Amino acid sequence: MVYLFLANGFEEIEAITPLDILRRAGAEVKTVSVNGNGLEVEGAHGVFVKADIEISEVDVDSADMLILPGGSRGTEGLKESEALRKIILDANESGIYIAAICAAPTVLGELGLLKKRRATCYPSLAGELIDSGAKYKNDKVVFDGHFITSEGAGTAADFGFALTDKLFSRQETDRLRLSMVYLMYNKPTLRDKKNALRKVYSSRRAAIPDEAHRIASEKIAENFFASALYRESDAVLMYLSINREVRTRALVERILADGKRLALPVCFENGRMTFRYITSRDLLVKGKFSAPEPSAECEEYRGGIPTVCVIPAIAFDKNGYRLGYGKGYYDRYLSRFDVKRVGFCFEELLVEELPHGRYDAACDAVITEKGVYLIEKQ
Hints:
By secondary structure, the chain is of the alpha/beta class. It has two domains: about 1-185, Class I glutamine amidotransferase (GATase) domain (Rossmann fold, 3-Layer(aba) Sandwich), CATH 3.40.50; about 210-375, Rossmann fold, CATH 3.40.50. The protein is about 35% helix and about 20% strand. The strands form six sheets. A seven-stranded mixed beta sheet has the order 5-2-1-6-7-11-10, sandwiched between helices. The chain starts with a strand and ends with a strand.
């Protein structure tokens, strides 16, 4: 059960839009009058709504989600309701989704529920939200734990679809977007597409069994060492693997034993990176992303010699484009050098095509456990 609370002066779009979207998805939603004097509630622009129930009829134990629409006068009405305050606090204790839009996130802020949590609200109220201890984000919709917040009337549809995501699935949300011709006018950005795919392919990579992961990583390394890209290089720029990336840590000794210069990445807070040479693991220190990094005393890579760079990613496509982690470290750094770019990729994460922009650079080859795929660049 979803309960949507209405006080006189509520912002109509912020209430009716998510209500409509959720009911289209099949959610059971009840509108709740908090006025205490009947079911009729007047919106901020003179639209009258007959609520389904009064606040005394709300059963928190049956709730999957609470929704608080905004409107300055409506939000004040929500804040004045002692019954609503108790419902919100009980829902919070139970981990029930609590969603608020426009001015309504300040209701949660005043209750101390957004301390150290990411949240958004109507922009002019950001200071109030920050004063309550929230980490204000200037985004259409912000998630943090069981709290969902949104900016205002202009983001009401995004808010409604976000609620559908939580109660149902992304597939159901996408179906609704298409049926409502929402995507025709609100097409996802390149970043949206990449972020969605990161979740899909990260889950797929995480599901690879440990032994299969180890064997595939070893075969990828064998294929790399047998390639002309490696043989013809004097220097290798390589990442040290973390989490479920193709394993590269065991390659260090082999590369050094082959007489090649090996440089590893160093990342900085401002999105900048560099590579520094090492001659042994003894020169490594704790790095920014859990992977060890060369110490500050190590010589910096300056280019000028035949170099191959092994680039990390979650997935690659058959045109050499990669799905990275969204920070842009490698593309910015490598734009300064003439190096051969190689992607290490599990075969099941080599896909036909990935979304890419004009600043994304394709690799010269993608290496999987099945072989070396040389890329013919346009």
